Amino acid sequence: MFLVSTVSSPHLIWAADQDQMRWDKKYAMEKYLFGREAISFLKDHVDLLPKGHVLDLAMGEGRNGVFLAVNGFQVTGVDISQEGLKKAEALAAKQSATITTVVADLETYDIPLNTFDVIICTYYLQRNLFPKIAAGLKPGGMALIETYTMDHLQYRPRFNKAYLLEPNELLTMLPGLRVLRYQEVDTGQAAFASILAQKPQ
């Protein structure tokens, strides 16, 4: 099921259209660009997450959201690419799971306050989104984030530095939340940071 969110400013509409076309083109292949398996950090900590409604921001092809849906969570995924979300829906169907998808630009998407038990966001860095993630959690809710760090430049020297985390930066980006797990990892092929944090009851 696709729900569509729109943006209003002409400049934002143009930028969103450019992003949407770029990601639709990337996802318009049978192969899953980032694979079908959820990230290890999510699989390792799924038993800590409070069961309920999950918001998967920048869902892409759905590997993480579908994993949670299979494990009994109610999942809503948001992404700018309808092509990516179509693949997420297909992945869910293959695993007899149900997800809700929303086509929206996260630059303008409003996260409802105190609504979600879990919010995840992986490999998408929009710094002004993090306070909204914290505000969107119910008391006791958890945020799980993972994305690349500056050390990733050794593997992808042309990666835009604006979308890379500084050392320990992720620890400062979820105001009012208690950090439960944190890691910075260099696999020899990629470098990233992961965090699991909880909103106080």
What is the fold's blueprint, element by element?
Elements: E1 2-4, H1 10-27, H2 40-45, E2 53-57, H3 63-70, E3 74-79, H4 82-94, E4 99-103, E5 116-122, H5 130-136, E6 137-148, E7 178-186, E8 191-198
Parallel strand pairs: 1-4, 2-3, 2-5, 3-4, 5-6
Antiparallel strand pairs: 6-8, 7-8
Helix pairs in contact: 1-4, 3-4
Describe the protein.
It contains 5 helices and 8 strands, in the order E-H-H-E-H-E-H-E-E-H-E-E-E. With 201 residues, it is α/β, with parallel strands linked by helices. It has one domain (2-198): 3-Layer(aba) Sandwich (Rossmann fold). Strands 1-4-3-2-5-6-8-7 form an 8-stranded mixed beta sheet. Helix 1 (10-27) packs across helix 4 (82-94) and helix 3 packs parallel to helix 4. It is globular. The model is unreliable at 4-14 (pLDDT under 50).
Uncertain stretches: 4-14
Please name the CATH architecture.
3-Layer(aba) Sandwich
Helix content: 25-40%
**CATH class assignment:** Alpha Beta
List the helices and strands in order. EHHEHEHEEHEEE
What is the count of β-strands? 8
Q: What Rg do the Cα atoms give?
A: 16 Å
Structural class: alpha/beta
Q: Helical element count?
A: 5
Number of domains: 1
Strand order of the largest sheet: 1-4-3-2-5-6-8-7
Biggest sheet character: 8 strands, mixed
- Here the CATH topology equals Rossmann fold
Fraction of residues in β-strands: 25-35%
Assigned CATH superfamily: Vaccinia Virus protein VP39
Overall outline:
globular
Average pLDDT metric: 89
C-alpha termini separation: 33 Å
